[in-house]
Structure formats: C-alpha cells, structure tokens
TrEMBL record:
This is Semaphorin-2A. Its main location: secreted. The keyword Disulfide bond applies. Keywords: Developmental protein, Differentiation, Disulfide bond, Glycoprotein, Neurogenesis, Secreted, Signal. GO terms for biological process: axon guidance; neural crest cell migration; positive regulation of cell migration; semaphorin-plexin signaling pathway. Transmembrane segments: none annotated. SUPFAM superfamilies: Sema domain. It comes from Apteryx owenii (Little spotted kiwi). Residues 1-418 form the Sema domain. GO terms for cellular component: extracellular region; plasma membrane. Pfam families: Sema (PF01403). One of its GO terms (molecular function) is semaphorin receptor binding. InterPro entries: Semap_dom, Semap_dom_sf, Semaphorin, WD40/YVTN_repeat-like_dom_sf.
Length: 418
C-alpha cells in the first residue's frame, strides 16, 4: 500500500544557504522538517514540484494499494507477502500532472494525477515496460516536454527482458533489441536525461566484450528523440542506439577500477555529469566520484565502434561510417537519409570502441571501506570562482560533503531502517 506525501523542501534541502559550514547536527534541527510514516519500508522515489515548493515522496503506506485478487495472483507465482505490495518506482512531474507507476504486486500500473490534488486520478494505464515488476529491479524514466515517456526497465515478470523503451506521446513506441545480450546484458539502470536531440541513459551491466571472466562495466547510452525505428530491419526498434564504457579509476602502473556506477547528477549549465562508482559487492569496499564532460561522451559516440564478427572472433575497432552523426530528419514518416545499409549497420554497430574518460585522470573524491549510493551537486559562487559542493550518501545514516576536493563535513542523520 502506498501514500504519496507532500512537504516543504526548501529549508530541508537548501540549509547550506542559510547557515554556516561549521554547524553540527543539533544546530540545524530548527531548519529540518521531518516526516514519518508508520511501517513505511520504501522511500526510494522522490521528485520535486518547484511551483508548489514541495517534495513528493513515494512510500509504501496507505492510499495506493493492490487489490486482493492481484495479491493472490502474485502469491500463486511464488512471491512473498513483502514483494506482493505496490512499490512506487516512477514519479515524474509533467505540467500540472504527476505521472506515477507502481509494481502493484508484480502487475505494474501507472496513473496520471493532478499535482495539486494527488487523490484525483485522470487515467490509469498498464505499467508494463514503464515500471519494473519486481521492487528489486533498478529502473529509470523521464518525460519529455512533448509528452514522450522514456523508461529503462525490465519488460517481463522474471526480469529477463530489459529494455530502453519509449511510449506515450506522438512518436511510435520503440525499444532496444529483445533478448540480445550485446545490446543490454543484465543491466542495472541508474539514471536518464533529456539533453538536446538525445535521451541519455546511464547504467552498469555485465561486459560482453570482456574476455577474461565475468565483470561489470558502467555505460553511457543514448538514442535520438526523433528516431522512428526501421522498416523490416529493426522494426519497432531503435536505429540510433549507442553505448560507451565510462572509465572511473585510480591511475597507476596497474589501474584500480571502480567499475560499478551507482548514481549520477547532471549539471546542465556546465554540461557535467557527476557519477558515483564503487567496487564489486563481493570485493573490498571502495568508492569514488568521477566527473565527465558531455563533450567527452559525444566524442566517444563519434569514434569507431567495437565489433565482434562472431562468438569466436575478437572484439576489434570498426570505423564509424558516420562520424559526424546527428539525429536524422523525418520526411513523411520516414528518415530521408536512412538506407537499408544504415539499418544493417545500426543492427550490429552500437558499442563504441573508445572509453569515455573523466575530466581529471584522478577521481574527484575517493574513500576506501565505503560504498556511496547517491550524489547531489550544488554550485555556489565564491569570491573569485565557482565552488562545486558535493553531497554523498553512504548507506542509511551518513552524508559526506566535499567542496572543491576539500573535506568539510560528515553529517549523521540518524536514519534507521525499519
């Protein structure tokens, strides 16, 4: 069962604007507004409504509940009582509406609600391909200004069919190729952004191009927003999907890699992507923050592809047939410059050879024996320069704060897991 809570966020999230950097936790108590919900177990989705100066939190509690028949069907498929609830996994503000999706006991469902009155539901649609079935599956989604929904999630009950999928709006639905591990290989989706002509997705996945055992790489991927799919070849499938590896590592004779992307934050005014990367959960815990320029990501997408002719062949660079790639133009519902050869190339060339390198060769911030989970960045004008203030969540109870690479604060919030 779910309740969508509203409360003021200005002083809660912007307290650094009003008080000194040297405060202790007790000093900020007057500026904090705390909310609680009895027996709440999931606060994973948050979104902002700047117009009302409110933060909307999706939590398991009261009003949006599964019906008993749906729960029973979930139980009959071997799922537990905890799993067979309605976990909110999509919360998106579009105009004066809130688009939200929940797992609904492994029968995902989405609603459009009035932002100023969340009990007012305008329409209800299937959440399949828009929201994961399982609360354990990572996903990300965004709404464009023209009304298209882009979602990266598992498309099926067992979670074996991950996809980047477009629906709603005026453009035709498209997805990544189905059951093709070279396109997506057991991905954990992290974030998505609407930038210019493209929609960008950030995730981690098992690396198909890695020949020496199983390992995870972090990726940046993109698709053209005006992609309408192929004809016969790649029908109902992206023709502009590309992905590239993100490198976050501690340099040296043998570099130490932080391979698993956990969270990102985009600064549009500076075209910078901040990312939290960690080591594998089975290895020694370590975390790092790496910063990527959007131009470096674009450069990787303009470079050669990495291609494997067959399962016994090595992965080799292959020249990009269109290194100055831009989104195509549509003419009477078809790409004017999309030939059959283009479609065949798009079907096999999507993994980029070049690795996206961070702004600096050394990570912006590193800490051993820690696993960071979320990052938020604020830009503050100093006397002579801009300062990037980075907030890092570590587990359930600590927020770390750095400014221009200098340590300032470790703040214990005392959050307890219910």
């Amino acid at each position: 069962m779910f309740h969508i809570w509203l409360f003021s966020y200005i002083l809660l999230f912007r307290y650094n604007k009003y008080i000194s950097f040297s405060f202790f936790f007790l000093e900020i108590v007057p500026w904090l507004r705390v909310f609680r919900a009895e027996n709440a177990v999931d606060f994973s989705q948050l979104t902002f409504d700047p117009g009302q100066k409110e933060l909307i939190a999706g939590i398991e509690f009261l009003e949006w509940q599964c019906d008993e028949a749906t729960k029973r069907a979930c139980y009959s498929k071997g799922k537990s009582k905890e799993e067979c609830q309605n976990y909110i996994r999509v919360l998106l503000v579009g105009g004066n509406h809130l688009f939200t999706c929940g797992t609904n006991a492994f029968t995902p469902i989405c609603t459009n609600r009035t932002l100023s009155n969340l009990t007012e539901i305008h329409d209800q649609i299937s959440g399949m391909a828009r929201c994961p079935y399982s609360p354990q599956h990572n996903s990300t989604a965004l709404l464009t200004s023209s009304g298209e929904l882009y979602a990266a999630t598992a498309m099926d009950f067992p979670g074996r069919d991950p996809a980047i999928y477009r629906s709603l709006g005026a453009l035709p639905p498209l997805r990544t190729a189905q059951y093709n591990s070279k396109w997506l290989n057991e991905p954990n989706f992290v974030s998505s952004y609407d930038i210019g002509n493209f929609t960008y997705f950030f995730f981690r996945e098992n690396a198909v191009e890695h020949d020496c055992g199983k390992t995870v790489f972090s990726r940046a991927a993109r698709v053209c927003k005006n992609d309408i799919g192929g004809k016969f070849v790649l029908e109902d499938t992206w023709t502009t999907f590309m992905k590239a590896r993100l490198n976050c590592s501690r340099p040296g004779e043998i570099p130490f890699y932080y391979n698993e992307l956990q969270s990102t934050f985009f600064l549009p005014e500076l075209d910078l992507i901040y990312g939290i990367f960690t080591t594998n959960v089975n290895s020694i815990a370590a975390s790092a923050v790496c910063v990527f320029n959007l131009s470096a990501i674009t450069q990787a997408f303009n470079g050669p592809f990495k291609y494997q002719e067959n399962s016994r062949s090595a992965w080799l660079p292959y020249p990009n047939p269109n290194p100055n790639f831009q989104c195509g133009t549509m003419d009477q519902g078809l790409y004017a410059n999309l030939t059959e050869r283009n479609l065949q190339d798009a079907q096999k060339f999507f993994l980029m050879h070049e690795v996206v390198q961070p702004v600096t060769p050394i990570p912006y911030f590193m800490e051993d024996n820690s696993r960071f989970s979320h990052v938020v960045v604020d830009v503050v004008q100093g006397k002579d320069m801009l300062f990037h203030i980075i907030y890092l969540a570590t587990g359930m109870s600590n927020i770390l704060k750095t400014v221009s690479g200098c340590w300032f604060l470790k703040l214990s919030l005392g959050v307890q897991k219910r």
